[in-house]
């Protein structure tokens, strides 16, 4: 009973702190950090991104940023490896790659990513949704909770799944820049039944499109760290969802010659959507 | 002679350093910070932005971020005041506002901005263009030097001008959200002849549109800090241009209720261009 009371006080206090600290639940007009401290402005909940989403979709597959540096900007996230050799998961400070063979391995600190986003994950809300949600139902459930349509959210889903379907791309050749939407037939799919693991992902607002991918975007990593990839479909069993509301984002564009000549005026909105979904519709 | 030799060595050394440090002139594929130091990744040349450009253009005029905090992220930049009451210039660590009356005043640390971008200005190149350039000719000259079309550049122009034409908007009422492109007739214009001062501005790449304004964007501040505003036209006399190549950018979206419900799916590209130019064409 004593423990329960203390826990309640802790939860209430934490809730109060969060309602002051998070723009998503704040009704004040002034940047929240000012309220608690007239000068502090550390912007703790920031999404750090290397690469430009529209560039990756359009064929900028050359890695330019080492995971060693990426990990300094976050312990949670997802991305694409150098030469598109699979899919990247950053979880609890470690970086894993699922290749097109399905093989899932830790990546070397010196290896390079062409596009990744990470944040230091601190849950500000924990949710326990009903069982048996498919991908669409899970996203609807999350939409009902994440009411700021222009908010940025890191989302960690932990637990048991009746089914998780993932995909990974095979590597491209050096200097190959075929747009990703033209290589969807090369994707390899993996169906995991009755599995246990983590979904690592984000819901990002529409204004971040082109530099990133708006809407939901998840990668999967099994508990045993022996399976993963970009989420195509799923059916939940017992899961717990943690939300980290983000306040800001930083983008570090590629430092490559190919990037300097890349045409960003081309509209790649449909390509971005079809690549995220894993197919044209 | 001795001084000249030393100066040459300094210039050569600085040039070498810059060619290693700046992605814009680097031909390597790895993020430059890695080359000099395996772990350092301070990303020194970052553009810090509060607010979303498309939001300001669409009517999000309520300030939410104090200049006191803004100055912690840069000593050079431009922006819009709370309620659109003029135009903001950040120069040598101080913040000035030119109102629609033409009055130019320092702003209070506690005042709020609805949209601003700043960086700590460190010139990596200094240029001395020919005299007598109008705005179009100046931008063509800069284009011939800033060859990375997807690069981000802070640009400081210092010197004498035969003419500088600026504009400033009058303040809106509380909670007024009329789109900026529908209020172009309220702009006040100021023609300054044979004046001396600074242009504070940026050239940003196309992929930053919607969150910011791509292309050139300059504000003016007179030497006496008694005149300024958003640049509409100009004719140069004796000027020197300093370039600061930027590596990354951070965006802090507004923490306001109005922002949470703002429709970013509407295409405001033409509105953004007409507001930057000061007219429909």
From TrEMBL, chains A, B:
<dbReference type="GO" id="GO:0047605">
    <property type="term" value="F:acetolactate decarboxylase activity"/>
</dbReference>
<dbReference type="Pfam" id="PF03306">
    <property type="entry name" value="AAL_decarboxy"/>
</dbReference>
<protein>
    <recommendedName>
        <fullName>Alpha-acetolactate decarboxylase</fullName>
        <ecNumber>4.1.1.5</ecNumber>
    </recommendedName>
</protein>
<comment type="pathway">
    <text>Polyol metabolism; (R,R)-butane-2,3-diol biosynthesis; (R,R)-butane-2,3-diol from pyruvate: step 2/3.</text>
</comment>
<keyword id="KW-0456">Lyase</keyword>
<comment type="similarity">
    <text>Belongs to the alpha-acetolactate decarboxylase family.</text>
</comment>
<keyword id="KW-0005">Acetoin biosynthesis</keyword>
<dbReference type="GO" id="GO:0045151">
    <property type="term" value="P:acetoin biosynthetic process"/>
</dbReference>
<keyword id="KW-0210">Decarboxylase</keyword>
<dbReference type="InterPro" id="IPR005128">
    <property type="entry name" value="Acetolactate_a_deCO2ase"/>
</dbReference>
């Amino acid at each position: 009973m004593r423990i329960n009371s203390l826990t309640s006080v802790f939860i209430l206090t934490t809730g109060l702190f969060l309602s002051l600290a998070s723009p998503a639940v704040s009704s004040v007009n002034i940047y929240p950090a000012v309220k608690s401290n007239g000068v502090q402005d550390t912007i703790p909940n920031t999404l750090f991104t290397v690469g430009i989403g529209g560039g990756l979709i359009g064929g900028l597959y050359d890695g330019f940023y080492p995971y060693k540096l990426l990990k300094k900007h976050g312990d949670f996230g997802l991305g694409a490896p150098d030469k598109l050799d699979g899919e990247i998961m950053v979880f609890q400070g470690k970086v894993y790659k699922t290749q097109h063979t399905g093989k899932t391995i830790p990546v070397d600190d010196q290896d390079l990513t062409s596009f990744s986003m990470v944040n230091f994950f601190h849950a500000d809300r924990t949710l326990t949704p009903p069982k048996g949600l498919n991908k669409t139902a899970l996203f609807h459930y999350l939409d009902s909770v994440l009411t700021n349509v222009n908010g940025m959210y890191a989302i960690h889903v932990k637990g048991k799944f009746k089914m998780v379907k993932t995909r990974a791309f095979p590597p491209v050749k050096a200097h190959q820049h075929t747009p990703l939407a033209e290589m969807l037939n090369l994707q390899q799919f993996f169906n995991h039944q009755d599995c246990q693991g983590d979904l690592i992902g984000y819901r990002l607002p529409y204004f971040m499109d082109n530099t990133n991918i708006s809407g939901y975007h998840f990668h999967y990593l099994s508990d045993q760290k022996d399976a993963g990839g970009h989420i195509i479909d799923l059916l939940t069993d017992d899961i717990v969802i943690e939300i980290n509301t983000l306040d800001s984002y930083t983008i570090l564009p590629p430092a490559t010659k190919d990037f300097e000549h890349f045409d960003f005026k081309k509209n790649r909105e449909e390509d971005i959507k079809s690549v995220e979904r894993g197919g044209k519709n």
